Each structure stands twice: as C-alpha cells, then as structure tokens.
Amino acid sequence: MATQSAEDGSAGTIQLLRQNxxxxxxxxxxxxxxxxxxxxxxxxxxxxxxxxxxxxxxxVVSWDFVSGxxxxxxxGHTLFFGVGGYTAALLNLEFGLSPVLTVIAGxxxxxxxxxxxxxxxxxxxxxxxxxxxxxxxxxxxxxFSLYRSTFGGETGLPNPDNLxxxxxDFAATALVNYYLGLVVFAAIFLIAFVITRSDHGIxxxxxxxxxxxxxxxxxxxxxxKLFAFVMSAALAGFAGAMFVHTPIGSASPSQxxxxxxxxxxxxxxxxxxxxxxxxxxxxxxxIYLARDYIRGIxxxxxxxxxxxxxxxxxxxxxxxxxxLFFLPGGLLPKLTVFGRKIHARVTGGSPKAVxxxxxxxxxxxxxIEAYRTRILEALAALLRRDxx
Length: 388
Hints:
By secondary structure, this protein is mostly helical. 74% of the residues lie in helices and 1% in strands. A hairpin with a 4-residue loop joins strand 1 (300-301) and strand 2 (306-307).
C-alpha cells in the first residue's frame, strides 16, 4: 500500500512538472545535450571553434543581463571582458599564480570596475550613458598601447597556462577545456536566467518599461540597476578570465576589447532577441559559427574576382544586416511563436501569447500586483492574529 502511494505521488509530481514546465525549456535541455555530444564527431580545430563560440555566448549573455532587462544599454561592455582577461593573464605570466587564483582575482577586479562605471552611470540616460560606457575600453586600449612592454600593445600578451592541461596531448587538452567551457557557460546562463525570472528580474523589466511607476510604489530603481550592472560586469569578467586560460583564448585587444567585439555582441543579442537570455546565447553561437563558416569559404566571387576569404568581414556584416532587417524582433522569439503554434496544433489547444519570462502583463504592473498581494497577505495575517 505504501509502495503504491509512493508511486502515485511520484506520478502526480511528474504530471505536475509536465503541466508547469514550458516545452521550450525541454528544447533548451536537448540543446545542452547536443552541445555535450557535439565534440565526439569534430576535429580538434572545430572543438576549439566551439569553445570560442561558448565564451562569446557568455559575453553576450552578460551584456543582455543588464542592457536587455534594465534598459541600461552599455556600449563598452568589453571593458569587463578585458579587465578580467588581462588580470588573469598577467597574474599567471608575471607571478606564476594558478589559473584558479587568477580567475578569482579577475572577477574581483572586474566587480570593482563595475562599481566604478555603474555608480556614476545611474543618473545618466541615452547618449550620456552610451558615452560613459563606450569610453573606458577605448582608454584602456590606449593605455595598453602606451605600456606595451607590460600589456603587449595591440598584439596582446602571450598565452597563459590552460585551465586544464593534458601533458603531451593537445587534442585531449582542447576537448577537456571545451567541456569545462560548457559547464561555465551553463553556470553563467543559469545564474542570469534564474535572476531575470525572479522578483529581481521582474523589477529590472519594470524599470525599463516605466521607472517612475516603479519608484511610485516605494522601490528604489537605483539599487536594482546598480546590482544588475555589477552582476553583469562580474559575469563578463569571469568569462573573460576563464577564456584567456583556454587553448583558443588570449589577452589581446582583438579578442577582448576592440569596438568590433562590442558591435558583434550587439548584433548577436539583437539577432537572438534582446531581453531573453536564451536568445542572446542562441544569437551568439549562431553568428560566431556563421562568421567562422564564411572565413572558411575559398570560392572566388565571379563579378569581383576576389576570394570570399578576403572579403569575409564584408559578407558577414551584409548577412547580419539582412537578418536584422527581416527578423527585427529576434530569432528566438520567432522560433518560440512557431513552436507554440506547432505545439498547439499537436495538442489541440490554442497558442498562448506569452513572453519569454512567461508573463503577459507589463512588468511594472506585475510588480505592483506582487507587492499588493504581499500587503494583503500581511493584513490578513494581522487580522487573524487579532481575532484570536
């Protein structure tokens, strides 16, 4: 009898989970399994490319965490990748510290940098906010050029130690570091995903939609905006510090700091779907692999009489421009709507017009309703206590 009850309880729990977990979450889990199995059929070069794509996705997710949800559009997020990456590389190369310690130091210093940039940015909006976030990485690049003996100038620093090294077997080293990168990507993604779907995340979106309405119910937007900015910086610094300790990464402006990196981050987030986290990850992996594919085409363009490899950057940006034009809302939202229609057709229901966070109402209305519910619950508790 007890065994039967336990089985019934387990079946009920599974059924409840099936009813409450959106199908797109299962798709995400399957995508993770595909990424885990992918290296088994790839060459070492392709494994390194996938590793770089994962770290680029971490960069984009960290940017989307703050800019996609609070509306604090940062045009200089590469500052945090650079601070984390250069700190980790310098401490390893100059002082011989282990990659574990250098990564921790990189995250701590990046958090401080996030506070230094985020605090004065609280009162700024629009062009002023864009300028104050755009200038720091440009200043840092110039600083590294002036002190090239220490920071390597435009070429960057030599490669530091790998996070995990398999002596005498580069292919095994690349494979192990790929899986480590996949774990780090999953951790950063889950942190950003969980926070943006918590009460904090609702508040972030509410601030973006109507900051005055949020303030009117007694919430301090500055506190939430600063937390989001610093958390985003810490995630970016963590990814940057880890990246330089991989076989494919290095502490150089071209990989961490240059304006082109920031432009590609913006393209990836917009193409995937700003303010979705999942879309940022999908867009990042897509455009990184698309660019790598275009670079590998050796066909000569007939009219221009020029190989594709010599005009890969031009073709890449033309392709991205076309996709942004035809997919203004982002790739993931389009796929989500399509998936809901298919799911509704299979199940016989009707597609639900919900957002990525699972809500239909404006975020600030949801937040006000949440606080209203809490107040009513508190009043009800007081009434019950007084009636005893």
